[in-house]
Specification:
The protein has three domains: 4-200, TIM Barrel (Alpha-Beta Barrel), CATH 3.20.20; 202-281, no CATH class; 286-408, no CATH class. Strands 8-7-6-5-4-3-2-1-9 form a nine-stranded mixed β-sheet. The longest helix is centred in the middle third of the chain and has 25 residues, at 257-281. The two termini are 22 Å apart. The chain is an alpha/beta fold. The protein is built from 19 helices and nine strands. The protein is elongated.
């Protein structure tokens, strides 16, 4: 269950003004690896996607630029591209792909879905004509004979295809490619691939984070949520036991996960999943850390109830996830990137919410109460319109509730 270090190399791609347009993302097995180690290409691409999106983060890797990622036949036909954001992704089809009917159908689907297609290490020939018709970009290696490059540049650019000169190794290479009319440039003359490092969350924790993300979409998809819960036997058991408990006072028993979710309702689902997933997220952490998270969640929820603003469920999550950095052993900003909470909750936990935001006031009040900063507690309680004695009562109610939740 321990977190492990993961790696992705990125090599910049420049435009005609020598400004970074994007990065080609490449598999690396370690921080010191200089080249792809020759392992299975499909596996390498899967790891690039997983490490880029889930461990390091596309925002951190790209900083608003484009990502170019190699795809072979297997990855293409299994539609792994669908996990990537189309607005910043270019799918590079490797030179060994044969444009048979299955491949052409898959590439056509990608284009219709809004993905851009590049042909990597391009070699001209009649068999490539059908793929050229679907391409947005073609990458030509610098060692291709220059007269041949010039012919292809004129032909392909006239068809609206962007051209990239790769393996640009010297200043003279770049100057020739610039005069020839290439749109983009890539090679060691500009920069060698730089290895980026991140921490991979164990599968169980990642599954729980995905369930929390799904549960907090603006509109719940019960079918998709039930499918996620069904993948975890322990959570499925806990859900069925909870839905059939005396708490709901049902005469007939619930026999399916989907029905159990209906019984809980939207607010109940969001709260239950957050609590049920917490022990897995906090694997091998002190039990007191879980209890403290639950105390904060319930404390925030009770204060929100007193305001009458209807933000109890959001306040509960703010308190529950306020210790997420300690639970996941990573900076809070990175943990929040992975969790994908609604913008309002996210801004409160990052300390970026406006001072007048009611959730922000509740969260600050809870933290000041824990610090015994009574003057600030009184000021913040006044802003909420909540008597100071009610704040203390809410805290005393949160303690036994959190203990009970932690035990169960």
């Amino acid at each position: 269950m321990e977190s492990v270090e993961v790696f992705v190399a990125r090599q910049p791609i420049f435009d005609r003004n020598r400004k970074v347009w994007g990065y080609e993302l490449l598999f690396r097995s370690s921080a010191s690896a200089m080249h792809f180690d020759g392992s299975d290409a499909s596996s390498a691409t899967r790891q690039v996607i997983s490490n880029s999106m889930l461990s390091i983060g596309f925002d951190k890797l790209l900083r608003g630029k484009q990502a170019c990622i190699n795809f072979g036949r297997d990855m293409l036909l299994h539609e792994w591209y669908s996990t990537l954001p189309k607005e910043c992704t270019v799918i590079e089809l490797t030179e060994d792909i044969e444009p048979d009917p299955e491949v052409l159908a898959a590439v056509s689907r990608m284009r219709k879905e809004g993905y851009r297609i590049a042909l990597d290490d391009f070699r001209p020939g009649p068999r490539m004509d059908s793929l050229i018709d679907l391409a947005n970009m073609i990458k030509l290696e610098m060692h291709t004979p220059k007269p041949q490059q010039e012919v292809m540049l004129r032909d392909f650019q006239a068809r609206g295809i962007r051209m990239l000169s790769e393996k640009v190794e010297t200043d003279s290479d770049f100057r020739w490619a610039l005069r020839a009319g290439y749109d983009y440039f890539q090679g060691n003359f500009f920069a060698r691939p730089v290895v980026m490092q991140g921490t991979q969350i164990p599968a169980l924790k990642l599954h729980c984070l995905r369930m929390i993300q799904e549960a907090h979409r603006p509109e719940l998809d019960f079918t998709r949520l039930a499918a996620l819960i069904s993948q975890d036997v322990a959570l499925s058991y806990k859900l069925m036991r909870y839905a059939n408990s005396a708490h709901f006072g049902r005469q007939s028993r619930v026999h399916s996960i989907h029905r159990a979710l209906v019984v809980l309702g939207e607010y109940g689902i969001r709260k239950w999943i957050s609590i049920a997933a917490l022990p897995a997220i906090a694997e091998e952490k002190p039990g007191e850390l879980i209890t403290q998270s639950l105390v904060r969640g319930r404390f925030c929820e009770l204060l929100a109830q007193a305001t009458g603003e209807g933000v109890e469920d959001q306040a509960f999550l703010v308190g529950l996830f306020s210790l997420l950095d300690a639970l996941l052993d990573r900076p809070l900003e990175d943990a929040l990137d992975e969790l994908g909470l609604a913008a309002r909750l996210d801004s409160v936990l990052r300390g970026q919410a406006p001072e007048e935001c009611v959730l922000n006031t509740i969260y600050n009040l809870v933290r000041r109460y824990e610090m015994a900063d009574w003057d600030e507690v009184e000021r913040l309680a006044g802003r909420l319109g909540t008597p100071a004695e009610l704040v203390g009562a809410a805290y005393r109610e949160a303690l036994p509730w959190a203990d009970e939740m932690a035990r169960t």
